[in-house]
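== Folding the chain ==

***
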Amino acid sequence: MAKPLVFHIDVNSAFLSWEAAKQHNEDPSAPDIRDIPAAICGNPKSRHGIILAKSIPAKKYGVVTGEPVSQALKKCPTLTLIAPTYGLYVENSHKLMEHLRRYCPEVDPFSIDEAFCDMTGTELLYPDPIAFAHSLKDEIRETYGFTVNIGISSNRLLAKMASDFEKPDKVHTLFPHEVPSKMWPLPVENLLFIGKSTAKKLHELGIHSIGDLAVADPTLLQNHLKKMGLTAWRYANGHSDGDFSHAAQNKGYSNSTTMAEDVTTPGQAKEILLSLTETVASRLRYDDMKAGVVSVTIRNTDFEDHSKQVSLYSNTNVTEELYNEVSALFDKLWDGSPIRLLGVAASKAEEGSAYQYDLFNQGKHEKLEKLDAAIDKVRARYGDDSIKRATLLNITYRPRKK
C-alpha cells in the first residue's frame, strides 16, 4: 500500500502577488510592490477598512491580516495601500487550480489561494517528489508571474505547516520524523490556529515552544483550554484531525481566512465577510453558476467552529443578495467571542439556473445581475476601488440587519 503523500500549495501574499504580476505585465519597469511595504485593503483613500494581504516587508513592521488600516499605518506610515481587484484574484485562482490538475490526481482547493494535492500513489510518475515540487513551483512562477510555497508531508496539517516555513518561492518538507527537529523548536504561536490569546494562556502555563506543548500533560491542557487544548496538543505532535478543514471544505464555492489577530467587533468582521462574499460571488459568476445555499462559519479562540446556513429563495450569484444573507447569518451566529477564522460558502450550485421571482423583487434581481456584470468588467480593468455599490459603501462600522 502506498504511503500517504500530501502537497500544500500556497500563493505567497496572494492578493498582493496577483496585483504585482498584473502591474508588471502592464509596466515591466514599475517597482514590484512585493519588495516594498505594501498591503491590499478596503477603501485605501479614506483609510477605512481592514488589511486583506500584506507584503513580506510590511510584515516586518508588524502589519497583520485583519487589522484596521489605521492601525497598520501607525506601525508603518510609508505603507503603500492598494484597493482589491476580486475579479483578478478569481481569474488567477482558476489558473492555479487548473495548472495543479494537470499534474496532481486530486486537487482540493482550501481557499482562493491555496490547495491540498493528494499525491499518494504517484511514485512512478514522480519518483522524487521533492524535485517535482521544485519544478512545479518554478513552472508556476515562470508561467504566471507569481510565486508559491509548497509544503510536503504525509498529512494535511504538517504539509500546511511546512508551506509556512521560510518564504517566498520555497519547497519545504515536514514528515513525522522531522517534527522534533523542524517544528518543535518554533514558538508556540507558530502552530496552526494558535492565536494571541491562546498563546498567552500557554505561556502562563510555562509552554513557550511547540515542543513544550507536545510533551505537556493533555489533561492539564484540557482543563485550562477545553477542547482547544487537546486539539493543540495533537497538532503539536503532528497528528492531523481526520476532518482537518476550514469552511472552504464543503464541496461548494467558498473562501475563508484566519486572522493574525482576533477580530472583536462586528464592523471588522463584516468587512472581512464582504471581502469573502465578493470572491465567492465572483467565482460563481466566472463559472456561470448560481448557489442555492449560503453559509457562514466562525471559529473562536477555543478552536470551536460555529456554522449556520440558509437555503435561498432562489439560486443566485449576485453579490448583494449573497452578502445580505451572510450578514444576517452572522448576526444570528456570533455570540461576541473573539474570532480567529471567518468563512463564507455557497453550495448546491447549478449552472445557469433560472431565478425564481417573487412579488417584491420583480426587476430588482435583473438590475443587480447587470450591475455585477458591469462591475466585474470595470474592476478587472481598473481595480475594485474604481467602482462601488452604493448599498455597501457604509458597512465599515454599521452592520446591516435583515
Observations:
- Residues 266-286 form the longest helix (21 residues).
- DSSP finds 14 helices and 13 strands in the chain.
- The mean pLDDT is 84.
- The first strand starts at residue 6 and ends at 11.
